[in-house]
């Protein structure tokens, strides 16, 4: 398990799936905002790639996020789009509603940076998020990500086009233990 200050990133367990399905993926608003595609219902027991991990998929590393104190499942975190030639990848995360706003998201981003830069030897990490997602923007910037651009009207979300912000962090600019103010 990868450890941050208060959260751990471990493999996806079978028993995580119904909780993630009910609390994250069945939520139409969260799904529409976070998935980059249309929300649709998931048939129970299906091999939905957002939930069921294919360990042979090399470019996509999904984690379940747990509290270090007690091991309670609090969300998902992913290093995806891993490009081993250009040595870059994207990160993404989603916390269960009850786990938001407690600093876990900032901690998860820090752990994903450790995984990307130290464990995988990547040079650049990238995040795309809706421009009104203040918590995600802040969690990224606290870890040193900088805003590199706005993708105007790039996301169709529940009846309107929204802007996305692209943020990047280079390995040489990453300060592992500093949470930027
Ligand atoms: C986005 C998300 C991962 C952030 O994680 P979090 O644990 O809620 O965020 P944190 O508690 O670490 O807060 C990060 C910062 O944002 C601020 N913040 C938290 N919630 C906020 C909100 N609703 N509005 C404005 N600011 C907020 C915090 O005060 C903190 O700022 P600070 O460091 O200056 O105190 C989490 O809220 C989430 O899973 N949301 C739903 C799914 C999602 O949007 N995923 C990202 C898709 S790209």
From TrEMBL:
<protein>
    <submittedName>
        <fullName>GNAT family protein</fullName>
    </submittedName>
</protein>
<dbReference type="InterPro" id="IPR000182">
    <property type="entry name" value="GNAT_dom"/>
</dbReference>
<dbReference type="Pfam" id="PF13302">
    <property type="entry name" value="Acetyltransf_3"/>
</dbReference>
<dbReference type="InterPro" id="IPR051908">
    <property type="entry name" value="Ribosomal_N-acetyltransferase"/>
</dbReference>
<dbReference type="InterPro" id="IPR016181">
    <property type="entry name" value="Acyl_CoA_acyltransferase"/>
</dbReference>
<feature type="domain" description="N-acetyltransferase">
    <location>
        <begin position="7"/>
        <end position="168"/>
    </location>
</feature>
């Amino acid at each position: 398990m990868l450890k941050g200050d208060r959260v751990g990133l471990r493999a996806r367990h079978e028993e995580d799936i119904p909780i993630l399905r009910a609390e994250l993926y069945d939520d139409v608003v969260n799904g529409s905002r976070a998935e980059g595609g249309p929300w649709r219902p998931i048939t129970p027991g299906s091999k939905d790639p957002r939930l069921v991990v294919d360990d042979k998929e090399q470019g996509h590393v999904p984690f379940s996020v747990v509290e270090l104190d007690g091991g309670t499942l609090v969300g998902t975190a992913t290093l995806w789009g891993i490009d081993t030639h250009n040595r870059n990848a994207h990160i993404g995360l989603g916390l269960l509603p009850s786990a938001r706003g407690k600093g876990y998201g900032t901690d998860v981003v820090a752990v994903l940076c450790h995984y990307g830069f130290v464990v995988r030897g990547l040079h650049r990490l990238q995040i795309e998020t809706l421009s009104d997602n203040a918590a995600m923007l802040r969690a990224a910037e606290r870890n040193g990500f900088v805003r590199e651009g706005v993708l105007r009207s790039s996301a169709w979300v529940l009846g309107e086009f929204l802007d996305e912000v692209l943020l990047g962090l280079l390995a040489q600019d990453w300060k592992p233990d500093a949470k930027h103010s």
